[in-house]
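Lecture 7 notes: from sequence to structure.

We start with a single chain of 648 residues. Read the sequence below before looking at the structure.
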Amino acid sequence: MQAFSSIFARIIWVMSFIVIPTYTHAQTFTNTTAGVIDDSTFCAGGTNANGNGVINDLERTFSVSGLTAVTDLNVGLVAAHTWRGDMDVRLESPLGTEVQLIVSDTSGAGNHDNYNIELSDENLEDVNTGSHATANDTNPPYYEFSVRPDNALSAFDGEDPNGTWTLKICDDYTGEIGNFIQGELTFAGTGADLSLSLTANTEFPTTGDTVTLTLTAFSEGPLNSTPTAQLNLPAGANFVSSSGDGSYNSSSGVWSIGSGFAPGTPRSRIIVISLPATGSFPINAEIFSSNRTDQDSTPNNAVTTEDDYSELTLIVQPSSVAPALNCPATDRFELAFTAPGTTNGWTSGSFAESYSAFDPVSASNIDLNFALSGDTGFLGAVGGVNSPVSQTTYTGGISPAEHSVAIAADFDTTNQFVTMGIDVGTTGIGVEALQFTIFDVDLGGWTDRIEFRGFLDGVYVSPLLTPSAQNYVSGNEIIGQTGNAGQTSSAGNVTVTFNEPIDRVEWDYGNDASAGPNPDFQIISMHTVNMCGRRKADLEAIKTVEVYDPNALGLYMTPGNEVIYKIIVTNSATATATAEDVDISDTLPDNLKFVSASTIGFTGGGFGTPNLPATNTDCAVTPCVVRFSGGDVPINTTAEIAVRAIIK
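Now the structure, written as tokens:
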């Protein structure tokens, strides 16, 4: 009940119905058709002066068009009323959703005049509370207070805004009178909501292939815009061509999307590049500039979570043709697996097997010792036989089928794996090169992931991995992709090559994280191990010293005379290989001054690390270190280093 007598104030507003779309800030629709808020618009739940107890709202409509889905909506209201707490204000969307923006408060708390407010969910202060617990001025400029509605406008988010919106106002108490002055709907943003997508025709191109990138810009409006986007290519990428909407500057990477970019009409640009090297190449793109503000992203700020930023990674693959072993055919030999129970067979369920193979270079057998470790408790069966086991069911596309060692696993997590270790020949010598193929590396309810490592005398040796259609290379790992290859298909093969000396190979077999928390049952199989015998150099080095003076003979080792030191290196005729990367270092006695150094007979190489001393360097003051490295000495060849010095 109100605490004092009603005050009747009647102001007659005669204005025509107006709906004004404005583009200065956000997309705004306004209704300024005057109307009376009194007993004729009495709310339900009581009896008005005419004895009626039904809702008889004052309604003002807004015809909205040309917009996309609602993302944010604010409502402006200007009304004169001597007890505004009596007013009940609701908004209904074209789809029939109704939100009660102001709930009437007929108690003393509502005893304030007029509304001159903008209602927004983002405001902290609720309508009629705090600093808004005071009378409002109904004169422009609008709006005097920014407040939060009693119920959230976000109820309209995601709806199609196009159509007729209805603002409904009623008076919840008899005797008071007021007037509607203005209502306004303001839809999201201060300009254009832009987003960007970057895609590629393949994420796994082969070395030397071209890649087609597609940049697509989207606008959700509400306003037209003139934006640009920046494409950031990695080092090593080469621009090939560009086509599509707008224009593209291949030097700066800026795509001028063009003017008049309207909501709901995407624009695209195709950029073709090449990536000549293997490896991982991240690429990103972002809206670079716009003549309109964007409510949920900022151009050129490199914030990856905003919708105007997009990125991808191209993992360039080596050729699908495996490299040949870098040795003469006469040096090659193999370990070919056979049926279980035979010489080169793998016994079902055994975690360690040893074999020997004849090396034509050394004219003797070398041993290959295999051992499986890790999460072996999760290994399963192949064709009803426990793995590991040599078999011919998984063939890698070879016909007629040849034996290979299959490993079946049913891991519970992507953290589990087994490790196959292979010791090859004598530690520190091993073989000159090694190659094998693993079948059926692919993707199903699992994602095969195998990491390969090589070693020579404990020093890491990098593998060369050759993928197939249903796996890809990432560093020293091979990862399954694009479905199940099938047990007799070559589409899941991966060839592993070490084209340098190696005495141990290791590979870890498990799942990529993309397989999910509990990967399915899976099988791979290792085929024949091909090798090259290790050829050896047979080096001998001697050091000589003599007096050096081309103009006089018979001089003695006396101060002031020059001497020449020689280090003579011979790779004997009994060697089986060129001596590669020969490294020789010598420190001169401290009773000398360095003059110069030279070489003959080496192929390649040079002095350095440290650099040669300067001419006339006193070796007692600064140590005179002479180092030559990187040179080769062919079989049955002699090479030498000659150092001239002065006796002090």
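Confidence is low (pLDDT under 50) at residues 1-25. Keep this in mind for problem set 3.
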